[in-house]
Amino acid sequence: MSGQSIFARLLFALSGHSYRGLRLQQIADGIGESPATTLRNLQAMEADGLTERSPQDDKCWRLSPRVVQVATAHAQEVMREQRQLDEFNQRYTRNPN
User: How much is the pTM?
Assistant: First the structure.
């Protein structure tokens, strides 16, 4: 497979399926691993708070809210930094007259 870790491949495979999730076989097929290996790694990620079983269907897995919270915190940081850069740019590009 690619140079990505199985955890990274699982994160990418589950992204965009956060509401209903995906069944184990779908995930395993998507990342090119056996269902047993995929399940073991999903469970390890679940222990770390990164994946969970879907409340709509306990045979499906999805990313946990923690992953979304990390992404949201990153987006907020980027917006804060962008505002500071915009303010800096305005201050230094104003016409002094």
Answer: 0.76
